[in-house]
TrEMBL record, chains A, B:
Originating species: Stappia sediminis
Protein name: TetR family transcriptional regulator
Keyword Cell inner membrane carried by entry: no
Transmembrane stretches, start-end: none
Residues covered by the HTH tetR-type domain: 6-66
Keyword RNA-binding assigned: no
Length: 205, 205
DNA sequence: TGTGTTTTGTACCGAACGGTTCCTAAAGCT
DNA sequence: AGCTTTAGGAACCGTTCGGTACAAAACACA
């Protein structure tokens, strides 16, 4: 029925997300979006309602294609331990080639304070990330003290976001290694060695 | 020598800074600034060159009145230890009443990637903060291993910035306490001299 | 082939943008 | 006084903003 859509919503959304990601919400103009999405104004307003709706959809896409992927990576059972997967994540942060930062982090800083709906989704993503850390830690040590588990997972989130900010400033490289070592120490205290063995009695219960 | 200026540059800059702080650079319009600074367009362009120059001046003011104050607080000798001052800083972050976030952090995320001059000043401020942590730690333990000192100071910066991001999302409250405990552990390992704040040392609650 | 439906591209909208230039009144100086 | 500098307001610049209206185009189904 009717003329079929001549572009793919997902592909267009991916491009829109990248523009918002690199320029921020306010600095991104409609022509910026149209150029990146390779559609015209008419198609834009037909497929999405307005600029803000595209931003929300882009945020949702970031959640689906980036955050949930990360969470899945953190909790996927395999030959490696949860601690190793967490350390791998922070290592990847340290060795990132570009300086793209993190769309979630950008949204948190420049949109969340002014848009409750965005704040809500940002919070949900942050908590999903925390849950990823939590599951990875719990996988290594099922009988971990719930308070230690909670603190460690939350602290990992704080470190994760802090590194994302520094990535945007170009200081990531010199900071990430130090942060990585401290994270490693924190993990050692929380779940012990990478093999998951509990070598220190009374340490974590 | 002509008519004297009828407004105070510093006071106007303070107001401008608050507007940029809360709305971001792009979202702040000239009328926004004029209203907050309580000056007219004519005076604006006479005293400052343009919007960007005001932003830079506001950033400089943030450095002078906020960052340097914090650094001075961290390193001021007194009855308390450097560790106590660091913990007090993180405690203050946790108990912040508003959700204003951090202008430095905002600048890092939404301006630094697009303005080399801003990036440079943001980096300088971050490094000044790191230096503040470093001096506080060194004051407590002059013979501290330089590598440990460096790592700890950098990691404190990462935690500091991460908490600022979470403040913008409203998740600060539940995260800050966990982060504070982990920071306390990190400080215990780096300089010792715990004041009993780390209740879990050798005990599990 | 004709009809109905949906998408498409584009011309266009009013409003607001950052920035500039006037100009007059006001306030210091010698 | 007379000179000089600034203040502050208004009008205005060209541009760009997000958003809309509409007719041509492309399909599905009859």
């Amino acid at each position: 029925m009717g003329r079929p859509r001549q572009f793919e919503i997902d592909a267009a959304l991916e491009m829109a997300m990248r523009v918002f990601w690199s320029k921020g919400y306010e600095a991104t103009t409609l022509p910026d979006l149209l150029g990146a999405m390779r559609i015209s104004r008419g198609s834009f307003y037909k497929a999405f309602h307005d600029k803000r709706a595209v931003y929300l959809a882009a945020l949702e896409r970031y959640n689906r294609t980036r955050v949930l992927e990360t969470v899945a990576m953190l909790q996927k059972a395999g030959t490696d331990s949860g601690r190793e997967r967490i350390e791998a994540l922070f290592k990847a942060l340290a060795e990132r080639p570009d300086r793209s930062g993190c769309f979630l982090c950008n949204a948190a800083v420049d949109r969340a304070p002014h848009d409750p709906e965005i704040e809500e989704r940002v919070n949900a993503m942050v908590q999903r990330l925390e849950q990823g850390f939590r599951l990875a830690l719990e996988g290594d040590r099922p009988n971990i003290d719930p308070d230690v588990l909670d603190e460690t997972a939350k602290s990992l989130v704080v470190n994760y976001l802090g590194l994302q900010v520094l990535d945007a400033t170009g200081l990531n490289e010199q900071m990430a290694e130090s942060c990585r070592l401290q994270v490693s120490r924190m993990l050692e205290a929380a779940v012990g060695g990478g093999n998951g063995l509990d070598e220190r009695a009374g340490d974590n219960r």
